[in-house]
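[INFO] parsing input record for diguanylate cyclase
[DEBUG] input buffer:
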Amino acid sequence: MIQNIDVGLVVLDKEYRIEAWNGFMENHSGVVSTQIKGKNLFTAFPDIDEEWFRDKADTVFQLKNRAFTTWEQRPYLFKFKNYQPITGTAEYMFQNTTLLPLTSATGEVEHISMLIYDVTDVAVNREQLKSANRQLKTLSRSDRLTGLYNRGYWEELMRMEFLRARRSQTVSTLMILDIDHFKNVNDVYGHQVGDQVIRLLANSISSSQRVTDISGRYGGEEFVVILVDTDPKHAMISAERLRQKVESLSLSTAQGELTFTISIGLCGYRPEFESHEEWIVEADKALYESKHNGRNQTTIAG
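[DEBUG] output buffer:
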């Protein structure tokens, strides 16, 4: 029965020599019991972390208590290939291991047994669920068209940056920008081309921003970027670089080459702001000035 159960069984003596090796272990290791009996575990399987395993096993020998290790702590003890078709995405078998003391007639623990459980199905399902949850979390934060943060999540980050700036008295700058004459783009070229223009601008923002900058799509053709720890004077350099980059872009359409421009408003954090909404309003006023003064330009809030 022990030879045929669907669980690995290994018996070790105090010198970590293998004394028993059942059918499960033979099938998955490719080594029959007659070849491996009497061999040192760490010599036969050098992939096993000897120091870690000895710490585990020594407590079983000395304290006569069982010990456990799960796939979440360590994916496997024995590096066996995974051949299950349903969980074929896993290269190796995930394992849970139980170490049990084997007490002799004199009450001494001269041997320990290891039970090796194949938990690949459970592990793969758990990892797939975690991956799905991570994707859902990302989707809940992202704008589907552009991949940038959506308005809800971006504004939450904006609120946190406002509180940080107020607490530390640092200067960050908010950039608001939108596409000039975007309604004409949709009317002349169609909404699909309009979406392409929005994605093209979003890509330009992503590729231009620093790691610390926080960008999002605020709505329609309007975008926002928080330039962390950056005053308006230095933010102007980044804004103008982005504006000029966008001005040089072109998009091939059925009606010919399409170019477009953006207008930008900047506003640095001010101690008199009572909320992040006030900060947004002031940056929006600067954007309006850029529009009013002829578009395709950057204005710093006065």
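[INFO] The radius of gyration is 32 Å.
[INFO] shutting down worker
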